[in-house]
Amino acid sequence: MIFGLLKRLPFLLFILCALLFSHKAAHAQTIIRDTEIESCMNEWFTPIFEVNNMSPDQVKIILVQSSQVNAFVAGGANIFFFTGLIEKTENPGELIGVMAHELGHVSGGHLVRGRKALEQASYESILGTIIGIGTAIATGDSKAAGAGSIAGSSVAGRRFLAKTRTFESSADQAALTSMKRAGMNPSGLLTFLQKLEGEEFLPATQQSEYVRSHPLTRNRISTMETRVVESELKNKDFPPRWLDQHARMKAKLVGFIHPERVSWNYDIKDKSVPALYARAIAAYRQNKLDDSITLIDQLLAKEPENPYFHELKGQVLVDFGKIAQGRQSYQKAAKLLPNAGLILMSLAHAQIESAQNDPKTLNMAIRNLKKALQTEPHSTRIHRLLATAYGRTGQDALAQLHLAEEALLQNKKHYAKQKAEMALKSLKNNQAATLRAQDILQIIENKKVK
């Protein structure tokens, strides 16, 4: 996992396999990418997806690093969770409840208003229009996140996301029904909303963004209480594994986002995995390399086959310039999770940085990046790294093609066209690459027509 910019690697604009952190004001929003957190949330949410005849691949869970308490659906089945909301939850059931509620807006057709215009826009434009960070998601450029105002902070965003009380009640009922069909305890949604209940009487400026865009009333809470009390599942426990995952998720977030709070949140006598995890990450964030590695090694002693601990060690070592050692840790993580695109990207980056001009190592990086592209098709970083690797192996035409791919994802049409045309001039026997360059030019031409 990576959090923050690698100061010693200037060409990296976006940190791969990572929690992406921005040294901006507390109100700034930044996209988070983290294999462990995303995997946990998909595991918890899958039963709800299945009873709604959806697969995890159909729903995009997008994490936003922000102190705000918020979650919303935008641009289709894209559900945004803010870290401020995750930090406020006490168990996975509360997050599952919020997700089921947001999915209720999708299944209830509550997103029709403005939908046609959004469907005709590109993915990044949809997100950029609503929350001002669409470019950050599509391009992996954290700087783009600050270019627009987050939904709920802007008048336009709040108007788009604001829902009627009828919609909110309908989504609540859909969520409770989904959890019943999935055999899951529905209490989480109720307990989460009860935490926010007092905000109903506060001035709008003092309410959380979630309450502003999701009208909360006493009647709504009362109706939900009745349904939960009547539920046969209200005392059903979640799997211990899920509770542990939730504890680790919160430890990871506080370590990266609030390292100064770790000593307050975890007693020095606490030797649990979440406590060690938070301390290891906080030490890294506070530039205490030796302390961080010592703590990560303690975690690995407890769980030597945990890919996320190897990933964290790789990140710490690479960020402090120990590229060869970091590459070894990433290799262990990738061996344990061979299809994790974010980890493969980080490994490839370490391979490129340590390869000098060794063709064998560069070709390994290329293979890892091509595999990563299968699960991360919207990552500009993959294309930037592929361009670098191909350039160093003398395959300039392919390097130009991937620069065109990167520019296309960033909506830099003129630059994408220029690079695709340059690639076409040199591509001869590579039919697949030639066709892709032609496709890029056609996509750009179609955008002009529209």
Question: What can you see in these coordinates?
Answer:
The chain has two domains: 209 residues, no CATH class; 209 residues, Serine Threonine Protein Phosphatase 5, Tetratricopeptide repeat (Alpha Horseshoe), CATH 1.25.40. It is 62% helix and 4% strand. It contains 23 helices and four strands. It has a four-stranded mixed β-sheet. Helix 3 crosses helix 8, helix 14 packs antiparallel against helix 15 and helix 16 packs antiparallel against helix 17. The two termini are 40 Å apart. The N terminus is likely disordered.
Main beta-sheet annotation: 4 strands, mixed
Tally of helical segments: 23
End-to-end gap:
40 Å
Instruction: Name the beta content range.
Output: under 5%
For the record, the count of structural domains works out to 2
Cα-based radius of gyration, to the nearest Å = 23 Å
Which word captures the global form?
A: globular
Query: What structural class results from the helix and strand content?
Result: mainly alpha
- Helical fraction: 55-70%
Strand order of the largest sheet: 1-2-4-3
Number of strands: 4
Output mean pLDDT: 82
Helix and strand succession? EHEEEHHHHHHHHHHHHHHHHHHHHHH
**Low-pLDDT stretches:** 2-28, 112-127, 133-162
Short synopsis of the structure:
The chain is 62% helix and 4% strand. The protein has 23 helices and 4 strands.
